[in-house]
UniProtKB/TrEMBL annotation:
Residues 1-19 form the signal peptide. InterPro entries: AB_hydrolase_fold (IPR029058). One of its GO terms (molecular function) is hydrolase activity. The lineage of its organism: Bacteria, Pseudomonadati, Pseudomonadota, Betaproteobacteria, Burkholderiales. Keywords: Hydrolase, Signal. This is Alpha/beta hydrolase. The keyword Kinase does not apply.
């Protein structure tokens, strides 16, 4: 069995053992726009921050009405059970109803921030816990956009940047700026950066981490990783870019930090 399939199976088994049945939520976010969420909560209720999980790539996760996923091999999708086992509500976010995906420059838009603000406000009210945005790869742009644009109950309590975009790159018709040039120094929330030292994805070169670190607000932390397994394309689900084979370590560090930012 492929490593990511094994991790996904373990995560699913964990979530079934300690979680409530996953709920599909259709959330109205903007006029005539809905956002589909898959919400997984611990069986005994949440004991830690709610984590809103933002996919990389084109952002189209494919949440079906029965709660299954078209793209369940994604790093954040496959660790959701482990996050739930640690007391977090895990919220997977799909593309909005007015778009097929999050391509182009949509991740940097006010509309995208409004969608995420609606998710944050909804989950904050529903579960009564702090809400953190967790972005992976291109999803790190989404997390930074929301943290920069949102305020009040719609703003995140902190953000996690896993395999952050550190190199200018083309995504469809748009050119995405590296995060160290996106105004992160103006953020007013804690930032946790999780990055594999051997990440070979062209948009996430580890050599650029010092540039990002120099611009992060306080409190913030960068945690580097090694080990695991890498197969196939450098930016895909079996690569170091997706923390293949070290998911448990990453989940533990993430959970510990959002509970006690430092």
């Amino acid at each position: 069995m492929k490593d990511w399939l094994l991790a996904a199976a373990i995560g699913l088994a964990s979530s079934l053992a300690v979680a409530q049945p996953a709920q599909v939520v259709e959330l109205s976010t903007r006029p005539a726009v809905k956002l589909r969420l898959l919400v997984q909560a611990p069986a005994g209720g949440p004991r830690a921050a709610t984590l809103v999980l933002l996919m990389g790539g084109n952002g189209q996760l494919g949440i079906y009405p029965n709660g299954s996923l078209q793209r369940d091999g994604h790093f954040l999708a496959r660790v959701r059970g482990e996050l739930t086992a640690r007391g977090h509500v895990a919220v997977l976010v799909d593309a909005p109803s007015d778009r097929r995906d999050l391509g182009g420059d949509f991740r940097e838009s006010a509309e995208h921030a409004a969608d995420l603000g609606a998710v944050i406000a909804h989950t904050r009210k529903a579960f009564g816990q702090p809400v953190w945005l967790v972005g992976h790869s291109r999803g790190t742009h989404s997390a930074v956009t929301a943290a920069a644009r949102l305020a009040g109950e719609a703003a995140p309590d902190g953000i996690v940047l896993a395999a952050a975009i550190l190199e200018s790159s083309r995504f469809g018709s748009a050119t995405a700026r590296p995060l160290q040039e996106s105004g992160v120094e103006a953020l007013r929330v804690p930032v946790l950066v999780l990055h594999h030292a051997q990440d070979a994805c062209a948009v996430s070169p580890p050599a650029k981490l010092p540039e990002l670190q120099a611009r992060l607000p306080s409190p913030s932390r960068i945690i580097p990783y090694d080990g695991g397994n890498a197969r196939g394309a450098f930016c895909e689900v079996q690569a170091f870019h997706s923390f293949n084979g070290i998911e448990q370590r990453v989940v533990e560090d993430l959970s510990d930090y959002v509970t006690r930012p430092r």
